[in-house]
Design goal:
It is globular and about 65 Å long. The chain is of the alpha/beta class. Strand 14 and strand 15 (401-405) form a beta hairpin. The strands form 3 sheets. Strands 3-2-1-4-13-14-15 form a 7-stranded mixed beta sheet. Strands 5-6-7-8 form a 4-stranded parallel beta sheet. The protein has a 4-stranded parallel beta sheet with strand order 9-10-11-12. It is 35% helix and 22% strand.
Length: 442
């Protein structure tokens, strides 16, 4: 079926903005990008911008109701163990309920694709049901590959029917402090897309490189420190490459940035999460200057504290400018590229997603500018990045189908079920001993 979507502005990302622009769609793919006069008005959105759907390079939609859990705790290890203890109080049905809410909130924020690290696998079910495109990286932990891969296989089998061309499986060896090099190797041998957390905090780096710092008191729950950084560890083992996404990379030096660039690994930049947890500010300008494949991720409401991609993009800009002490180090258009084509590139999906171009998937978002401080529009990219919000998203299309429309999808039952799961997690105040019973797997 053929259709046309048009708006006051079209932002193709790989081409200049189009005033009174439009895209033509057939069989879920874009067939033409041009002006409304050329392609016809079709479904027209006045006072709005049509742009590629946001690509969230790093999320945990199963943590959609974790807002405020452990906020302000003294160190990252203490924070992460609180989440382990709380999520042990709920079961499979609750994981699915929460993941459905997370997927819905992503769509409502203009996100059409996620790279999701999933503890239970419920993310695959939620994305398949709600029409959100995803790579679902099932998490693995520990030193011994055999039980970790056995658990992975069981969870993959449980959600196998949810996988498709739109929702693909991946594997996530959690981090170099919670996963041995042997397990990283075993995960790579599966031939699936890989996601991992690398150099997220100073405490992590201190533990990995010297076995010291606040995390040393958790050494009985973590793998033996390799006495090198996560980036160097994986690069030296030949385990970084185009099929790998490294989340965070806050504490990376020039040599590590070079390794990320030469191996063509993707990096998911999550400034709100890093700021909320006091982890630091990632060297975004240096990563971009080295041509590292950087995208943007919201992480999860456990830290971020939402899937609001507009707020994430604003923080991408502000963090980069603050670190460099220069307002010209990153523009709104740069940030928008990072959150669309850049994230698609980090996930290895840029041939299909991330820009409005003939042949690509018709994944798009419409953002209203009615009543905005940026209307009438001078710079449509700035209007979206600095003036956008989930409340301004009029529609989110995946493969040309509206998976979200403002006012048409309230998701009351879905929201109530997820909040019931949150109440179960908050039912008992955790003790210090209880929070230490399992390694930090959040």
């Amino acid at each position: 079926m053929s259709r046309v979507i048009s708006a006051e502005w079209v932002l193709p990302v790989e081409a200049p903005p189009i005033r009174e622009g439009a895209i033509a769609i057939e069989d879920g793919r874009i067939t033409a990008v041009g002006t409304r006069d050329e392609l016809g008005p079709g479904t027209h959105y006045d006072d709005a911008v049509l742009l590629p759907g946001f690509v969230n390079a790093h999320s945990h939609i199963e943590y959609a109701v974790y807002g405020g859990f452990g906020d302000g705790l003294g160190d990252f290890a203490e924070w992460i163990t609180l989440h382990i203890q709380r999520k042990a109080r709920i079961g499979w049905d609750e994981y699915v309920d929460i993941a459905r809410l997370g997927a819905a909130e992503c769509l409502a924020s203009g996100i059409t694709t996620i790279g999701d690290c999933s503890y239970s696998g419920a993310a695959a079910v939620a994305c398949a049901e709600l029409g959100l495109r995803a790579t679902v990286y099932l998490e693995v932990f520990g030193a011994d590959p055999a039980p970790a891969l056995e658990s992975f296989a069981a969870r993959r089998e449980r959600v196998q029917s949810s996988f498709s061309d739109r929702v693909r499986p991946g594997i996530s060896p959690h981090a170099p402090y919670s996963v041995s090099l042997d397990l990283y190797r075993a995960a790579a041998e599966l031939g699936l897309p890989v996601a991992t957390h690398i150099s997220e905090s100073p405490a992590e780096v201190k533990y990995l490189t010297a076995g010291e710092g606040p995390w040393s008191s958790y050494s009985d729950l973590l793998v033996t420190p390799p006495l090198t950084t996560g980036t160097r560890l994986l690069a030296e083992a030949g385990l970084l490459g185009p099929d790998v996404v490294a989340a965070h990379c806050v504490m990376v030096d020039a040599e590590e940035i070079g390794l990320l660039a030469t191996t063509q690994a993707g990096v998911a930049h999550c400034p709100r999460s890093n700021g909320a947890l006091g982890c630091g500010v990632a060297p975004l300008a240096e990563l971009r200057d080295a041509s590292v494949r950087v995208g943007v991720g919201t992480d999860s409401p456990a830290s971020a504290p939402s899937f609001d991609f507009f707020e994430e993009l604003r923080n991408v800009v502000f963090a980069a400018r603050s670190r460099a002490q220069r307002p010209d180090v990153l523009s709104a258009a740069d940030a928008l590229e990072l959150g669309t084509l850049g994230s698609a590139r980090a996930l290895g999906l840029d041939g299909e997603l991330g820009s409005l171009a003939p042949g690509k998937r018709a994944d798009a978002t419409v953002v209203s500018l009615e009543g905005s401080a940026f209307s009438p529009v001078e710079d449509p990219a700035a209007a979206v990045v600095f003036g956008g919000s989930p409340e301004r998203v009029l529609a989110t299309f995946v493969d040309g189908e509206a998976q979200y429309e403002r006012g048409g999808m309230e998701w009351h039952e879905l929201t109530a079920a997820a909040h019931s799961a949150r109440r179960a997690m908050l039912a008992v105040k955790p003790s210090a001993d209880e929070a230490r019973v399992t390694a930090p797997h959040a």
